[in-house]
Every structure is written in C-alpha cells, then in structure tokens.
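Cast an eye over this sequence plus tokens and walk me through the fold:

***
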Amino acid sequence: MKIVFFGAGSIGQSVGAWVSQHHDNVFFIDRGEVAQTMKEKGLTIYQQGNENNPLHLKLKVLDDISEAADADVIVIGVKNFSLDAVCNMIKSKVGDKSVIIAMQNGIENQKIIPDYFSKAIYCVIGYNAWFDEPGKLGYQKKGPLIFGTINNELRDEMTQIAEVFNKGVETIIVDHIQDAAHSKLIINLTNSLTTLTGLGFHEISDMSIFQKLLTNLLYEGTKIARAAGYKECKIGGMPPWSLMKMGATLPQFLTR
C-alpha cells in the first residue's frame, strides 16, 4: 500500500512519521520551505515531557503530486480554507483512484471532499501537536485517530488502512463519524476563548472568571450538539460531556 501525506503540518507529519516507522511505502509532499526542510533535515519528534529523548526520522519526500498517481491512499492534512484548491489540484493531476483520508477539524470538509473524490474517509484527530521550528515537532500524546465514513461505506478499505496505521498510532473505526466530528468541535471551542483572552501571551487577570467562561462554553457546546441529535463519542484523553456539565454546574470550590 502506497500512502502519501499531502500537507505536512504538525498532524500530517506526526501521523506520517509514526506510520512510516512500521510501513516502508510512506511519502510526504508539501511546498517550498516545508518540503525542502523535510528533504534535508527529516523530522525530529518528541513527546511532551520527554524532550530529552527525541526520535529522528528520515522522510521520503515527493517533488510533485503527479508522483502520487499510483498512491493507494492520499492523506490530506491541509486546513479547510485551503481544501477546495488542494482537492482541485490533486484531482487534476492524480484523478479519483486513491482512497482519500481527510484530516480536518469540523465538518466543512464533508461538503468539499465529495465534489472531487468518490472514496473518502474522514479522520478525527484526538491529540495535539506543534512545531518548535521547521523539522522539530512535539506532541501531547500519540493518538488516537478516529476513522469513519458518512454512510458507513468503504468498510474493507478502512479496515485495511487502519491495520497499517495501528502499527504506529492507535486508529479506531466508528459507525457514527458525525458524533466524533461534533464531539471534537466542542473541544475546539476552547481555541476561541484562549485566543480572545490571549492565554499564553499575557497573564489572565481573573482565573475564576476564566474558568467560568471556559466551563460554560463547553457545557453550552454539549447542549447544542445534543439538541441537534448528536451523541457523545469518547475521544481518548479528552474530557467527557459529564465532566463538562459538572464543571459548569457544581460550585467552583469543587471544580477549581
């Protein structure tokens, strides 16, 4: 199985690196400086708290997406705002033979991907990763990845791909990918608050108010998801909806 990771951000590179340790036929493609850094430096990757024991990997980098014409799997790791243009480019140069794995937050990719490809698997990411500098990447924990399709099609393909991915990172197949996508969307609400308050850039003046905003925001997210008919999908390491409710409704001296 030839697997190509298109868009080598922190998620694409970390997943690709873990898979490539156990599967030889893994390739990366990106543009400009990112591609050049991958070619020259490879990737140094470490787990948070274990910075002194990093892993260094050499990566196989393609020069052009046309070299992925024989790929069995193309993993698209770009953000939603770039997805339409990227899908159009891949389709024009590669066609519609490969299984596509979409690694975007949210549900916007479900509107874009089917316009270009007939075989799409959606992947919800259950961990955080970041670049310290080009070629050096940290991650919170290894996985999990959650695979699913809109109508539970491509079961054989999902099973085969998950078998390969599981050698490097925990990969789970679910029957209700919409529940997983919306459960992750709730967690991502925290990004809005931390950005608006400047967390990490200046001191929070009142942590009690910050906690109240954060817990109520998450709880409101669960109520909206339930009202829309979605159910909780437990994503490893992320707080369950019951904990979000307790955080918002119990006295602060218990939840601080």
